[in-house]
Design a protein that fits this description.
single chain; mainly beta; Tachylectin-2, Chain A; about 40% strand; globular
């Protein structure tokens, strides 16, 4: 969700219009495969991650390398031709772009390989769950696995023949059923959330599996809220009551709260609640102080959407990514050759008041800072300017 995104991260939104499936972002057929001749670097970022060109899901840390997957248009600077872009880094600062990890190629994803998440299985094997859209606009949940685990960069991913894994059955809205979360393990079964909507009620459906292949829908939604519209990019994870350290998604205990974050398609921003995970019932109950919907807590009150966290076991922290659609007019995006960035990665933890999350940029960003520049005893005159030596104006 390039227009690109993180796990995501940017989730793509659809509605049915005269039988045609479209994105909530306006579709520009004349531009979506039009590449820029010259990529403008003037405002291309250095602190923030973005692909070298065009529109820019689920991040992970695996065997010493950070991976970020994102919704990406390899052919143009507007929405369309969506694949899973893939970049890697050892320090969250310097990124290497690889070939797309997932491209539409099967009947179940021929109209789009949309957002999803990664999960590391106990065998230390990563697996991607993602939403595929078929030619009728039906959304299903599918999986991909590395073609070669000995490749440290995990360059190639394959789609096994038993896809799709999860179909929109039993009353689920087939055109509003997307963005599977990172899975967690509890009482002998994997659990995963999928976002949906029915009659303006936002819904997070829960699915269970013993083997990560055969999934069964729970009898009741994991959580839902009226008048919130489509829930995209659900993210569910534990936070410690006593420490800033991050926790594995499967960690359970008395000394944790849980966070449920969703991205509101109607409002185009994220909100989260803090609450209790009732493990016996497989339901989530927000605290009394946590409000669902438009008045809920937010990671960021700026342009920030389709966020995704992941647990970094190397430094025992939970890292947050989010999509910043700082795009110009469509024609300007095409001219400069790119649109959208990822917000800087941040660590998140529970505030001591246990009523909200706190966050801070990851420490690696400090390496991008230059020397301190000081100026004093400078008189500013009307209409004059003073050049500050030792810094550059652009990122």
């Amino acid at each position: 969700m390039a227009i690109w995104n993180l796990l995501w991260l940017y989730i793509l939104i659809l509605y049915v219009n005269n039988g045609r499936m479209e994105a909530s972002h306006k579709v520009y057929p004349q531009f979506q495969s039009l590449s820029a001749v010259n990529i403008r670097q003037l405002h291309h970022t250095a602190f923030h991650f973005q692909p070298p060109k065009n529109w820019i899901n689920g991040p992970m840390y695996y065997n010493g390398i950070y991976h970020i997957f994102y919704q990406y248009n390899p052919k143009g600077a507007v929405w369309g031709n969506i694949v899973w872009g893939h970049s890697i880094s050892k320090d969250l600062i310097n990124w290497k772009e690889l070939e797309p990890a997932i491209c539409p190629s099967k009947h179940f994803d021929i109209d789009g390989a949309w957002s999803g998440s990664t999960t590391i299985l106990p065998s230390n094997k990563p697996i991607i769950l993602y939403t595929g859209v078929d030619s009728n606009g039906i959304q299903t949940q599918n999986y991909a696995v590395p073609a070669n685990l000995s490749d440290p960069y995990l360059r190639k991913w394959i789609k096994p023949g038993n896809n799709p894994l999860i179909d929109p059955e039993n009353g689920v809205n087939a055109t509003a059923f997307r963005d599977p979360s990172t899975a967690w393990w509890l009482n002998g079964r994997w659990r995963v959330l999928v976002g949906s909507e029915r009659n303006s009620r936002g819904i997070a459906y829960l699915y269970r599996s013993r083997d990560f292949i055969h999934w069964t829908k729970a009898k009741h939604p994991f959580h839902s809220a009226p008048n919130t519209g489509m829930w995209e990019c659900p993210d569910f994870y534990p936070v410690s009551l006593s420490s800033k350290e991050g926790l594995d998604p499967s960690y359970m205990g008395k000394h944790v709260k849980h966070v449920l974050k969703v991205s509101l398609d109607d409002a185009r921003y994220d909100y989260y609640t803090l609450g209790t995970y009732l493990t016996n019932d497989d339901k989530y109950v927000p605290d009394n102080a946590s409000v669902d919907g438009w008045a809920g807590l937010r990671y960021d009150y700026g342009n920030f959407y389709a966020s995704k966290t992941f647990f970094d076991p190397a430094k025992r922290r939970r890292i947050l990514w989010g999509w910043v659609n700082e795009s110009d007019f469509t024609q300007d995006d095409v001219k400069k050759g790119w649109a959208g960035i990822q917000a800087i990665p941040r660590i998140v933890w529970l505030d001591t008041n246990q009523r909200q999350l706190k966050q801070w940029p990851v420490e690696e960003l400090n390496t991008l800072r230059g020397e301190i520049v000081k100026m004093s005893h400078q008189k500013l005159k009307k209409g004059h300017h003073i050049e500050i030596q030792g810094i550059t104006a652009a990122q």
